[in-house]
Design a protein that fits this description.
heterodimer, A: 306 residues, mainly alpha, ABC transporter involved in vitamin B12 uptake, BtuC, two-stranded antiparallel sheet, 13 helices, globular, B: 361 residues, two-stranded antiparallel ribbon, 2 strands, 70% helix
């Protein structure tokens, strides 16, 4: 395989985790809820998905179990922040810490087991094309699912009435409430969708990227996905682009290590985290720009009748 | 239907009762979890919550582990009261280990033996500088570029861990260490003096108590501390009063960085006595829980630090005595914080039975 094609291929593959998680977080942030528990949801989902795939032998069931696990944790978070008005930062953080512990607890018996490397899905007719075939059309199905989800979410947010309503929850829920829309239930739904997608992202790591389970497997990808939604100024297409860029950074780091570049591998491992900081700095430099793009009610609790 | 309605004033009773209720509920969940795993719930609870207090050695271990938790949480309390969301204390702690450990290692390998009153303060100061450097980076990026402090401080945790790895797998590796990724042991003059004979408990615990008093004085008796908290509670009021939010940001982050760094330096100069890749087991994150359980109050933090340390040691005992996964302790910690946040709802709000009117939201 051509080297550039290989680079693009692996960038897409490793960016998919971030794309899935950040798309989910985008949905709940667009509804006005900031869930810092992404990392915890991904970890628990990664374990759940891995366990399901290991026992049933079916990847589909693995991903479904992971999505359910992610959604369940998200529902717990939503119950606290939406119905009990707890602080969103503290609760999200608590969910991340709890998720880390729970995943380690549940995964004890699975450490050391691994799944066979995943088969890639060759898109019929297209995967034989020179260069673009290996780069774009020879992937695990979830890579295409992530792209389809980005398109679907963009269509939903900007082209449907329900999407408009969801965005209204994030901008200013008062008028929607006055019109009789169930603000809290819509937010609950959005948070659960966010959790389910973070779940898929977690399972993608434990079933496709790794494919195995160790404690703390996702290594901060949930947090990077949170940064990605800011970088993408809460737009699905930019989330996808950003995710593949970050995927590229990860791959670059791995290929530099493989080529035996004389930099300590520990310093190279820092790259994605440093890149996240750099990107956050670049995008946040102009406060007015962020304020213009950020859902206006992001992180603010909604108390009907107060 | 049951509705939550705001209380006219926050309930003082609930502020103090909430952590106790949360602890009871967490113990209840722990009992259920133990029963589900086929263990005797009462015996399990006894091992986790009472066994660590059963003898002198165990108690000393509890206080030893509580020391860094308390010191880190004191700094975090200042941050959270100023509404600055520093969640990367783990990274600042590690940089404290690097700073303090670096100086200690340099003195050791150069064969420089300083009197204890000179060498140790040098090590601790270097640790504080390391922590301040890491927290200062967060403050700088927040202040200059408006970058979110939650994400930046968290990302720096990973950078810190990799920095430690790069050092102990590289230049700091002990030449006589059989190629193990760890530094040489520090010279005996750089070890923190023990507090109790034949235990690992060191004077750092007393320092933690003194620091708690100092932070309490700063928060409740100094004008700077007052300004900081006004900024956290009511940013608009603080602006109107002319209190600088930038100075609150820098003060709280540098202070918490210094404390987390100090905690790191005390760990390497105390029980560890060398630099290894396994300096912290998530103490910086547990400290966040300590901070909330302790009501962001120095006195509460001392109590909560001992409690969380007890649960960590209890978790280790449950692993060896009952064959439970070690992660049990971190599940219970996370759960404690989640339940606590739910209970805290009833500080500002109360439940009322109200007839549903019109469309429900």
């Amino acid at each position: 395989m051509n080297e550039t094609a290989l680079l693009i291929n692996t960038a897409l593959a490793s960016g998919t985790t971030l794309a899935l998680a950040a798309l989910g977080l985008l949905v709940n942030e667009r509804a006005g809820v900031l869930n810092l528990g992404a990392e915890g949801m991904m970890l628990v989902a990664a374990v759940a998905g891995f366990a399901a795939a290991l026992t049933t032998g079916s990847d589909t069931l693995g991903f479904l179990a992971a999505a359910a696990a992610g959604a369940a944790l998200a529902a717990l978070f939503a119950g606290l922040v939406i119905f009990l008005n707890t602080n969103q930062y503290a609760t999200g953080l608590a969910l991340s810490l709890f998720g880390y512990g729970l995943s380690a607890f549940l995964g004890v018996s699975m450490v050391g087991k691994s799944l066979s490397p995943r088969q890639t899905y060759e898109v019929p007719g297209l995967s034989d094309l020179p260069f673009v075939g290996p780069a774009l059309f020879s992937h695990h199905p979830m890579v295409y699912v992530a792209i389809a989800l980005a398109v679907a979410i963009a269509w939903f947010l900007y082209r449907t009435r329900a999407g408009l309503l969801l965005r209204a929850m994030g901008e200013n829920p008062e008028p929607a409430h006055a019109l009789g829309y169930p603000v809290r239930l819509i937010r609950l739904g959005a948070v659960c969708v966010g959790g389910a997608l973070c779940g898929l992202a977690g399972a993608y790591v434990s079933l496709v990227t790794a494919p195995l389970w160790v404690e703390g497997l996702t290594a901060g990808r949930g947090w990077i996905a949170l940064a990605l939604t800011v970088f993408a100024t809460w737009r699905p297409a930019r989330v996808l682009l950003g995710a593949y860029l970050f995927g590229g950074v990860t791959v670059l780091q791995l290929s530099l290590q493989a080529q035996g570049v004389a930099i300590s591998s520990h310093l190279l491992t820092m790259l994605p985290y440093l890149a996240t900081i750099v990107v956050l700095v670049l995008i946040s430099r102009n406060p007015a720009f962020i304020r213009l793009n950020m859902p206006a009610s992001l992180g603010k609790p909604f108390r009907p009748g107060s | 239907m049951l509705m939550l309605e705001p209380r006219p004033a926050p309930s003082r009773v609930m502020t103090l009762a909430s952590p106790l209720i949360a602890l009871l509920l967490t113990a209840l969940v722990a009992a259920l979890l133990l029963a589900a795993l086929g263990k005797d719930p009462l015996e399990g609870l006894r091992v986790i919550f009472a066994e660590p207090l059963s003898n002198r050695r165990q108690v000393s271990e509890v206080l030893l582990k509580a020391t860094p938790l308390i010191v880190i949480a004191l700094g975090l309390a200042v941050c959270y009261r100023a509404n600055v969301w520093n969640i990367g204390a783990e990274g600042q702690f590690l940089l404290g280990c690097v700073g303090g450990g670096g100086v200690a290692l340099w003195l050791t390998t150069q064969g420089i033996v300083l009197p204890k009153v000179l060498g140790l303060p040098l090590v601790l100061a270097a640790g504080m500088l390391g922590g301040m450097l890491w927290a200062g980076a967060v403050a700088l990026l927040r202040d200059r570029y408006n970058a979110n402090e939650i994400l930046v401080s968290l990302m720096l945790v990973y950078v810190a861990q990799q920095s430690v790895n790069a050092l102990v797998f590289g230049p700091w590796k002990d030449p006589q260490g059989f190629n193990m990724p760890q530094s040489a042991m520090f010279h005996a003059s750089l070890h923190l003096p023990p507090l109790l004979e034949r235990t690992r408990l060191h004077v750092g615990f007393v320092a933690a108590l003194v620091l708690a008093a100092a932070v309490a004085l700063f928060l409740f008796r100094s004008f700077r501390g007052f300004q900081l908290q006004v900024g956290g509670l009511a940013p608009a009021a603080a602006r109107y009063a002319g209190f600088s939010s930038r100075s609150a940001l820098w003060t709280s982050l540098l202070l918490s960085g210094a404390l987390a760094g100090l905690a790191g330096a005390m760990e390497v100069a105390g029980p560890i006595r060398q630099v290894t890749p396994y300096l912290s087991t998530g103490l910086g994150f547990t400290a966040i829980i300590v901070c909330f359980v302790g009501r962001l109050h120095p006195l509460g933090i001392v109590v909560a630090g001992v409690l969380l340390s007890l649960m960590l040691i209890g978790g280790e005992l449950a692993q060896s005595r009952l064959g439970l996964p070690n992660a049990m302790a971190s599940v219970l910690q996370g759960l404690l914080l989640l339940i606590l946040l739910a209970c805290d709802t009833f500080i500002d709000q109360r439940l009322r039975w109200r007839r549903a009117t019109g469309r429900a939201a």
